[in-house]
Write a structure and sequence with these properties.
Blueprint lengths: L7 H7 L2 H6 L13 E5 L5 H10 L5 E6 L2 H10 L5 E3 L11 E7 L10 H11 E12 L5 H13 L13 H10 L2 E10 L2 E4 L3 H9 L9 H19 L4 E4 L2 E9 L1
Parallel strand pairs: 1-2, 1-4, 2-3, 4-5
Antiparallel strand pairs: 5-9, 6-9, 7-8
Helix pairs in contact: 6-9
């Protein structure tokens, strides 16, 4: 799956944790004078702006690209001085134009079978010696929520179509190498992520786990979500927030 249609306004209001947690990923970048960076899957542009601010003292520049017209409209509204371009991460058209590619919370939206397309495009976009610095969902991310949803689907005789690609480091490293990217840093870590309020889990599911519900009525969708809430409430709701069991991969690789 790729090119999910986003409700950009709701995303910015309810899911700002995506770029807040992702801000530290920029620390993996080795900044050099005049470098040019591609923010791949820039969303609403918050991290693109952070990259711009980090690069300016060194005379560097950043370009944000995203497949979502809705997200890009928001990015251009917030940061009119930054260039943004609509482009599918699987089909990048750049050739040795960037010293670094940065990406946060994007790779897991692309099917396993299409990861070689993604990585080949990144490798083409990078200059020799260029850096890839990124973070995305790792093995087990949201595992308890997905398991509860799967049970609710199966009780109705429905198949739960898992909508993400969450690899291990061991699974992903060879794919990087085949694309000509040498892995230099890799971390797989738990990152419990709060979604505030009684409806936090429902908000998270309706924002991020839309594909399995395709073709279902709103009544059936709501019933599945409420069953999932009932199953997970005791272990995942602390009275103020739902704590989603995120797992992340954070990595740095260099084009060889």
């Amino acid at each position: 799956m790729a090119n999910k249609k986003w409700d950009a306004g709701s995303y910015e209001q309810s899911c700002s944790f995506v770029y807040r947690f992702g801000s530290s990923v920029t620390e993996l970048l080795t900044l050099t004078s005049g470098m040019r960076v591609l923010d791949l899957g820039c969303g609403s542009g918050a991290l693109t702006a952070q990259l711009r601010d980090q690069l300016q003292p060194e005379g560097g520049t950043v370009l944000g690209v995203d497949a979502s017209a809705e997200m890009l409209a928001l990015a251009r509204e917030h940061y009119p001085d930054i260039p943004f371009q609509q482009m599918d991460a699987r089909y990048l058209s750049f050739s040795e134009e960037f010293d670094a590619v940065f990406s946060n919370a994007v790779f897991h939206w692309i099917d396993r079978e299409e990861q070689p397309l993604l990585l080949a495009g990144i490798a083409r976009a990078l200059k020799p010696g260029g850096q890839l610095c990124c973070e995305f969902g790792g093995a087990g991310c949201g595992g308890r929520v997905h398991a509860a949803l799967k049970k609710a689907f199966e009780r109705r005789g429905l198949c739960y179509r898992f909508p993400f690609y969450f690899p291990t480091i061991g699974e992903y490293a060879p794919q990087l190498e085949r694309a000509g990217l040498l892995l230099t840093h890799a971390f797989l870590f738990d990152r419990p992520t709060p979604m505030a309020g009684e409806k936090g889990l429902e908000t998270w599911i309706r924002m991020f786990v839309t594909a399995p519900f395709g073709g279902l009525s709103e009544k059936e969708t709501a019933a599945i979500i409420h069953e999932t809430e009932d199953e997970l409430r005791e272990s995942m709701f602390d009275g103020e927030s739902w704590i989603i069991d995120y797992v992340r991969i954070r990595l740095r690789a260099v084009k060889v």
